[in-house]
Amino acid sequence: MTPSNGLATRKVTRTVFDLTAFDDVKLEKTVTLPTKPTTLEEALKAAGNDTAKLLDLIHEGLISESVETARADISGFKVVGEDGEATEAYDGKFADEEKGKKINAAILALAKMNGFEKSLPKDKKAALKEKATEFLRSNPAMLAGMQG
Questions:
Q1: Cα 45 to Cα 37: distance, rounded to the nearest angstrom
Q2: pTM of whole model > 0.85?
Q3: Are 124 and 118 in contact (CB under 8 A)?
Q4: Which residue segment(s) compose the domain that 115 sits in?
């Protein structure tokens, strides 16, 4: 995001367990991002003229790029079981991020039609969402529309 002052910003989110509310609370703040350097000298200056720090930043960027490339390619992923171990190769059908958002929105809308509210206990909310999920799964027309 680039506001009117020309500086790029990004929203940073974090979830914490609030001891007063005794529940998870999602937090958000906006940070100003550094401008992209056009030369190595500018990059070194942005790293406080610390060559080792600049190399660390470059390395972190390379790692991030590798992780994102791997995340975008579904091949090679394994299913993580309840024991936390990744064992068998994933060979299922999956929804891309956009379709996943639409499916989750549909589940929430159906759950709300059946009484889902944020103020309900977690187990009641989970049960209503599960009921909505099962309804979608058992409805061939809706399932075909989501998979198509």
A1: 9
A2: no
A3: no
A4: 93-147
